[in-house]
């Protein structure tokens, strides 16, 4: 018998708490039900099992992780400054999370190995943010690019090495990030400006 009124947000909050408490390897849907004081079956009214619930948690976590990136898009800055800030934020967001929220970061890595659809959506969102800034730069006359979407894909892939956990403790990480970003921005710039 349900003791509290459930909705997806309450379930996602509880699931994050359970993952943080037990870790992604040991946490399970029964732990979530127990923390909410509901039956295991009550959760199945909202999610089709652990995989569906863990995907939803990871998707929300990624969205929250990249919220500051979305804020950069609305800044009143020229496109080259925005792009630098955005790419730097992309590189640092996951590294910060691996330090500040290691269980949720581990959950993200686990999901990345088994289910690519949430990860692919996050990549697509990142590419679209870059494309928006490149298009702004074209309008401003800062960037010269005939195919902004393809350029955004290239820029994303060129910087994606910095979102991989193996890069987080690399010597000269910040300098390397800045060098790659500056190189990419120079490549996008209008040669007449």
TrEMBL record:
Residues 28-47 bind DNA. One of its GO terms (molecular function) is DNA binding. Keywords: DNA-binding, Transcription, Transcription regulation. InterPro entries: Homeodomain-like_sf, HTH_TetR, Tet_transcr_reg_TetR-rel_C_sf, TetR_C_27. Residues 5-65 form the HTH tetR-type domain. It comes from the Bacteria. PROSITE patterns: HTH_TETR_2. The keyword DNA-binding applies. PANTHER family: HTH-TYPE TRANSCRIPTIONAL REPRESSOR NEMR, TRANSCRIPTIONAL REGULATORY PROTEIN. This is TetR family transcriptional regulator. It comes from Clostridium paridis.
């Amino acid at each position: 018998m349900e003791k509290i009124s459930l909705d997806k947000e309450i379930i996602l909050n509880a699931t994050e708490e359970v993952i943080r408490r037990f870790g992604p390897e040991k946490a399970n849907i029964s732990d979530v039900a127990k923390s909410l004081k509901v039956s295991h079956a009550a959760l199945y009214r909202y999610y089709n099992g652990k995989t569906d619930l863990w995907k939803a948690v990871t998707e929300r976590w990624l969205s929250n992780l990249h919220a500051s990136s979305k804020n950069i898009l609305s800044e009143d800055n020229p496109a080259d400054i925005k792009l630098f800030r955005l790419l730097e934020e992309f590189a640092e967001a996951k590294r910060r999370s691996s330090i500040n929220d290691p269980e949720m970061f581990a959950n993200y890595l686990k999901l990345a190995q088994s289910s690519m659809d949430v990860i692919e959506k996050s990549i697509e969102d990142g590419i679209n943010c870059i494309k928006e800034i490149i298009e702004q730069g074209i309008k401003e006359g800062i960037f010269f690019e005939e195919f902004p979407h393809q350029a955004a894909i290239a820029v994303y892939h060129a910087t994606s090495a910095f979102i991989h956990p193996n890069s987080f403790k690399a010597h000269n990480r910040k300098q390397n990030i800045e060098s790659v970003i500056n190189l990419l921005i120079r490549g996008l710039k209008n040669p007449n400006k």
